Structure formats: C-alpha cells, structure tokens
Amino acid sequence: MKTVNKVINVSLTGGLIGALGSSPRERLGDEINIANKHGWHVKEILPASSGSLLYSLLRFIVLIITLFLYTFESGYYIILEKDIPDDAL
Question: Is residue 14 over pLDDT 80?
C-alpha cells in the first residue's frame, strides 16, 4: 500500500451574504463528504490565513465597494490521504 496526499482549498464568503448565506461548518462538511465518497480521509484541517496587509486592504476595499454585501475571506486547507494498492500505480 502506498499513501497519497491531496490538499483542498475551501474558500469562504464574507460580508452580509456570507453571514446570512453560508456557514464555514457547512462548507467544510460538504467538501469532506464529497472527498469521503471518493475514498479520501481527512488528515488535518488548517486555517488559510493570510498575514498580508495588502490582501486585508483589498478585502476591505471590496467590502466597501459592494456596500458591505460581499467580500472574499480566508478559508481552510483540508489535507486528505488515501491508501492506494501498489499494483494500481
């Protein structure tokens, strides 16, 4: 058996649309359920935080332009693993 890894980036929506429309728990759960159906197992979930001042400023500008309705948010990285038989490679 050989173990193969995969990383999924789950992006989130901010602003009023993000607050009223979707929750991070639901988004993570949906992505994990899809991966589990394909035989992947969750190894770790990491926050995809950006410490960049420019990125934070850009998010704030988008939030102002859209009248607080929408902005993009940092999401999560889901690290998955799957065991593959040696003869399948």
Answer: yes
